[in-house]
Amino acid sequence: MIQRTQSLLLALVVIAMGVVISSPIWEKSSAALNQKVVLTAKALEHAQGTTTVSSSTIYIAILAGLAALIAAFSISQYKKRVLQMSLGALNSAVLAGVLGASFFNVFKEGIPLFEPENQGNYALGFYAGVFALLANMIANRLIRRDEMLVRSADRMR
Question: Does the keyword Transmembrane apply (predicted)?
Fold first, then answer.
């Protein structure tokens, strides 16, 4: 039953993780110093004038891809609600890891590069990660509600 609400929410998690991988997560710039820092799921790039220094953050992309795969697999497990709830809990942990890794890179590596008083701005990739976490949480609640409904119907027979 792909048309169930929780299946649609899990599909939105897959789409949101694609946005996290392809869009900037955080950025900070200074016109006075001619510097810019951009955090994506693949790299933290610090542009200073004409030179650009990049450090790899591929683990954010790997976690986001893993979250998308878990959500996609969970959609196909609609007949096994207990397994689907377990996959949802695992996916919540992976999504929290994506956001945690993003925060770590922003606060420990991005902000101290220049003008520490300038915190920078979160971009579309960050908000897509937050949306994915909320959509996954709501999908888990709906799956649990379906399981409780089925169990209560079994008791009535």
Answer: yes
